[in-house]
Amino acid sequence: MKRSYFILTGLFVLAILGGYLFSSGRLSIKLDQYAPPMPGGDFSLLSHQGPVKLGDLKGKVVLIYFGYTYCPDVCPTALALTSAALNQLTGAELTQIQTLFISVDPARDTPARLDEYAHFFHPNILGLTGSKAEIDDITKRFGAYYRIPKDSTDENYAVDHSSQTLVVDKLGVIRAVIPHGTAPEEMLLTIREYF
User: What angle do CA 69, 111, 118 make, to 5 degrees?
Assistant: First the structure.
């Protein structure tokens, strides 16, 4: 009886702790409350329609996601969740937001391919690319990570990369990080704070 009690109590505590960690892992992290801000800053990358500067998007909330079009599962999941959140915004709200999908695989992700891939998920998502040096600089300043295998001669190589969405406010300051797998409704709560 005593042993069963301890086992049930242990399972109950684990369930509560697991639920807390699961839910807290999905909430956005507001950088001004929990961490020193990432430096961020302006950048210019290439879209299918030409150069895009982050500074030109001031006045809009900008969501930034680093990934690549050949990603088998993580990027499609992240962009599908972002798309679901964008679909819940009003028309007026959509005019106040821009989503950037920045490729960490510039060797394979051409501007045309990025445009087709990003727009498959939502017309508000803009695909961007640049040189490896530019991508290295931007990922460092924006707290992202990626690693292309040294032997990337096989055209089907996978890129290891971080998977979070950054929220940049209308003044161009990184304000929050939305972890991978966050539900669209929770994403909206964070996004709407910066309209």
Answer: 45
Listed in order, strand segments (DSSP E) in 104-147 are 125-128, 146-147
- The domain that holds 89 is classified in CATH as 3.40.30.10
The residue behind tokens 């969405």 is: 165
Position 14 in a domain: no
Number of domains into which the chain is organized: 1
Question: Looking at the domain assignment, is residue 15 inside a domain?
Answer: no
Its domain, for residue 147, covers 28-192
In a domain, 9, yes or no: no
Strand, coil or helix: 181: coil
CB 165 within 8 A of CB 81: no
Q: Which residues of 103-125 are buried (b: 16+ CB within 10 A; e: fewer)?
A: bbbbebbbbebbbebbeebbebb
Domain membership of residue 158 (yes or no) is yes
d(CA 97, CA 170): 9
Residue type for 188, please?
L
Would you call 165 helix, strand, or coil by DSSP?
Answer: strand
Write out pLDDT tens, residues 124-146.
999 999 999 999 999 999 999 99
The amino acid sitting at 166 is L
Predicted TM-score (pTM) of this structure: 0.84
**Given pLDDT bands bounded at 50, 70 and 90, which one contains residue 32?**
low
